[in-house]
Amino acid sequence: MQASGYPAAAAHGQASAPVQVSVILPVHDAELWLDECLGSVLQQDFEGSMELSIFNDASKDKSMTIIEKWKEELEGSGILVVIGGHDSPSPRGVGYSKNQAIAQSSGSYLCFLDSDDVMMPQRVRLQHAAAVRHPTSIIGCQVRREPPNSTERYTRWINQLAPDQLLTQVFTSNGPTVIMPTWFCSRAWFSHVGPFDEGGRGVPEDLLFFHEHLRKGGGLVRVDQSLLLYRYHPGAATHSVLETTIWTHRVRFLEEWALPHWATFTIWNAGRQGRRLYRSLTAGSRCKVVAFCDVDENKIKKGFYCYEDSQERPKPRVPVLHFRAAQPPFVICVKLDLTGGAFEDNLRSLNLQEGRDFLHFS
């Protein structure tokens, strides 16, 4: 389906041979970064057939001029270029743009690229090889952040999760363990899971797709090389999504995907975040909470947390215990990498298995 505005334009001879990889590039007012981004497509060392599918989401800057300039050079190097878009007064959003770029493309595999990021030359080659081996997985990669000192804890988390943690840490506030700007997957699998939610600004379309991918049994694989320069700036679309929106989706997915496997559980953190999680749970899930645990002597001395806003009578009073007196499994509401290693040491001392005995939620 074409968007209103102007039809997709492709290089001549597009139908002559099947395309192996389509690079999916939504664009909205990206003139600051497009030259570097498109140059990185040209520099790919993948030897198979490749296509660039661009969807321009109502850009008002010089993005289209830059795209047209690069089109001839890309086509001259053998990369098919498909351009679609619309010039409505306002953009339709990232989910819509990605769906349109995918619909107008033809590759057997999809390589997602944000217009403010830069691919390393080996990205398509290495991720394509991984996707062929893992046809029902989302393939990611390690990243290099720009500026280098922005979001240091988050970048460390992206790059250093162990393979099993790609599945066990899917509930944290960091979002998808394989981050959207690095995604690569087969078209067949995308069609099985997708499309992206098209709710527009303020909708975490990547998180919603990620959850659906997991519901359908999809795997997660990270190529352990830095294959993307991942830019951080105030204008990034991710900043338009409210924390409360993401929180709600995270809690519901925790209740759907993890808590049914546990008859009871303990919330690790009797402070603000732990209490917030408790209050956010459905009544059925709250009934499974047997205790909070903590290291704060003042919270432990009080002995319980009373849920004052509850409609139940008497109001629920949940015990607060020292973590060594508490029973797993735990839903952990303590942010990692913020206590100088003290929390991590306490957790390791219990000899628990992540996924089976505890999950991270913060």
Q: What are the salient characteristics of this protein?
A:
Nucleotide-diphossugar_trans; 6-stranded mixed β-sheet; 32% helix; 362 residues; UDP-GlcNAc:betaGal beta-1,3-N-acetylglucosaminyltransferase-like protein 1 isoform X2; single chain; elongated; Glyco_trans_2-like; alpha/beta
Describe the SSE topology.
Blueprint: E1 6-9, E2 21-27, H1 34-42, E3 50-57, H2 63-76, E4 80-86, H3 94-103, E5 109-112, E6 118-119, H4 123-133, E7 137-146, H5 152-160, H6 165-168, E8 184-186, H7 187-193, H8 205-215, E9 219-231, H9 243-257, E10 265-268, H10 272-280, H11 283-286, E11 289-294, H12 297-302, E12 304-306, E13 317-322, E14 330-332, H13 342-348, E15 358-360
Parallel strand pairs: 2-3, 2-5, 3-4, 7-9, 10-11, 10-14, 11-13, 14-15
Antiparallel strand pairs: 1-4, 5-8, 6-9, 12-13
Structural write-up:
There is one protein chain. The protein is of the alpha/beta class and 362 residues long. It has helices spanning 34-42, 63-76, 94-103, 123-133, 152-160, 165-168, 187-193, 205-215, 243-257, 272-280, 283-286, 297-302, 342-348, and strands at 6-9, 21-27, 50-57, 80-86, 109-112, 118-119, 137-146, 184-186, 219-231, 265-268, 289-294, 304-306, 317-322, 330-332, 358-360. The longest helix has 15 residues, at 243-257.
Question: What is the H/E string?
Answer: EEHEHEHEEHEHHEHHEHEHHEHEEEHE
Level of helix content? 25-40%
Quick check: average pLDDT? Answer: 93
How many alpha or pi helices?
A: 13
State the separation between the terminal residues, measured CA to CA: 40 Å
Oligomer: single chain
Number of strands: 15
Task: Note the overall shape.
Answer: elongated
Strand content: 15-25%
Whole-angstrom Rg: 23 Å
What structural category characterises the helix and strand content?
A: alpha/beta
